[in-house]
Specification:
Elements: E1 2-7, H1 15-29, E2 33-38, H2 63-73, H3 78-89, E3 92-98, H4 106-115, E4 145-151, H5 168-181, E5 186-187, E6 191-193, H6 204-215, H7 229-233
Helix pairs in contact: 1-6
């Protein structure tokens, strides 16, 4: 297995950093190849601007068109092209980050904004009577797996169905479905640690064992059963779920799971 870890935390000695290090050592000891993109150490540029597209930028700047032209011409900046090549190399991608303000750190979102360029992460495939591009189960990254490894400061009860923060699956849906599944990645259930602001050193061995167990079973873990866009569940081009396919009483994000 070839694993790419996208790591976003400014402190190497943080719990998030420890989990990243443990993932590297565990996977390598099991005979797997590992690469790490340490976004803070790389001083990753988060903001998309005309400089990303060189001679393929135009005025006024239209990001999809400019990024698509630059991708096709091979003129995206070297840092972006390097990350795209890492994604194509990997068969498993782990995103390791703390949950900040209910989402990923800005530097990681900036990685997505720049690396998932038009004609790579989106804008792929034909539009016709039976498909609406290649996305949500198809796309450039189809055949690969991804998983979120997330640390959350609050207790688990805060992220439950009746918890004040909302269910963790709902908070992560825009990332798991809208960012990872969109370009074709199969998304494994996330590894989430709660109450990390109050976690003690004595608790870490149990955390490390749980994380190690997840890492060693990545290849056999069933992905989240998101519905595929072009395989009969949705009307095209409205992309509305067809009547009668939802389980009784299911609403919201849950509609998009088989």
């Amino acid at each position: 297995m070839k694993t790419l870890i996208i790591y976003a935390h400014p402190e190497p000695k943080s719990l998030t950093g420890s989990l990243k290090d443990l993932a590297v050592s565990t996977l390598q000891s099991a005979g797997h190849e590992v690469q790490v993109s340490d976004l803070y150490a790389m001083n990753w540029k988060a903001a998309v601007d005309a400089a990303d597209f060189g001679p393929d930028a135009a005025s006024p700047l239209r990001i999809p068109r400019a990024s698509g032209r630059a991708f096709d011409a091979g003129t995206l900046t070297p840092d972006v092209r390097a990350e795209q090549q890492k994604l194509l190399w990997a068969d498993t991608i782990i995103f390791q980050f703390p949950l900040w303000w209910y989402t990923m750190p800005a530097i990681l979102k900036g990685w997505v904004d720049r690396v998932f360029s038009y004609n790579f992460g989106y804008g792929v495939g034909a539009h016709n009577d039976i498909q609406y591009g290649e996305r949500f189960g198809e796309g450039t990254l189809a055949g690969r797996r991804a998983m979120l490894s997330v640390t959350a400061g609050g207790p688990e009860s805060h992220y439950s169905e009746r918890g004040i923060n909302g269910p963790i699956d709902d908070l992560l849906f825009p990332i798991q479905h809208g960012i990872l599944y969109y370009p074709g990645l199969e998304v494994l259930p996330p590894f989430v640690l709660y109450g990390t602001d109050r976690m003690t050193d004595a608790e870490y061995p149990d955390v490390a064992k749980a994380w190690t167990d997840r890492l060693l079973t990545l290849e056999s873990t069933e992905p989240i059963a998101f519905r595929r866009q072009n395989f009969g569940d949705y009307e095209i081009p409205s992309l509305q779920l067809k009547d009668g396919l939802e389980p009784a009483g299911r609403t919201g994000f849950g509609l998009h799971m088989r």
